Amino acid sequence: MSEAYDPSAEGAQMSFKGRMSYSDYLHLEKVLDAQEPLSTAHDEMLFIIQHQTSELWMKLALHELHSAIDCVRKDDVQPCFKMLSRVARILEQLNNAWDVLRTMTPSEYTQFRGSLGQSSGFQSWQYRAIEFLAGNRNLAMLGPHSHRPETVERLEAILARPSLYDEAILLLGRNGFDIGEDGERSDWRESRHENEAVLAAWQAIYREPHRYWVLYELAEKLVDFEDYFRRWRFNHVTTVERIIGLKRGTGGTGGVSYLKKMLEVELFPELWKVRTKL
Known about the structure:
mainly alpha; Methane Monooxygenase Hydroxylase, Chain G, domain 1; 12 helices
C-alpha cells in the first residue's frame, strides 16, 4: 500500500494562522451561511441556491456590460468583444442552471411555494439592470423596486445614459453613417424605436464586412448576446410551465403568459432585420 500523500512535502502551505486562506479571500462564511430555507421541504435548498448563484452570475454580467459600454463610448471597441463574449458565456451558465432546477417536480415545489410569499424572480433588480443596459427600457419595471430607494437610484443611473445598443448606434454615426433620429436623441430613459437609417447602416456593414470589420464584429457580438439572452428567457418559460403549469406567479404576474410576452421583446431589432435585407 502506497504511503499517503502529504502536500506539505512539496511546499504547500498547511497552516493559515495569521495568513489569508481561500475561505477568507472569498468570504465563504457569508456565502455559505446565506441559505435559510423557510420550510422543511428538501427541495427548497435547491430553489434558493439556484437563484442565489444566478444573481452572482448576473453581478458579473453587469460588471462586464458596464465596461463594454464604456469601451464603445470611448471608441476603444475591440476590448469590448471579449467582455461581450464573456457575457454570452455567463448567459449559457444561467441557461444550464434551469436544467438543475427542472429536476424539481410540481409536487416538490408545492411543499414550500407558500413560504415564498410574494417574492419572485420578476423582482430581481439585477435582471432589470441587464435589460436596461441592453436597451429594453420599460419604465413600468421600476415599480417593484420603489420600496428600495437605493435600488431605484442605481437603475435610474443606468437609464440616464445611453444603453449598449444606443452606444453602438452612436458609434455608427461617429464612423460616418447616417443614423437618423438616433443622432438627435437626448432622453435615454425611454426605449428607442426602430430606425430605417440604422437598418441601412448595418446593411452596408454586412455587405462589406472586410471594409467595416470592427463594426461588423461588434454587430455579431451583440447578436450573440441577444441569442443567448433569448435562450435564457425561453428556458425560463419552459421551466416555469413544467413546474407550475399556467398558474399565476408568486409575484402576481401571469406566470407563463407573462414570460411568453417577454420572448417577443427584441433588444437589437435592426440587427435581426438586416438578415432579411441581405
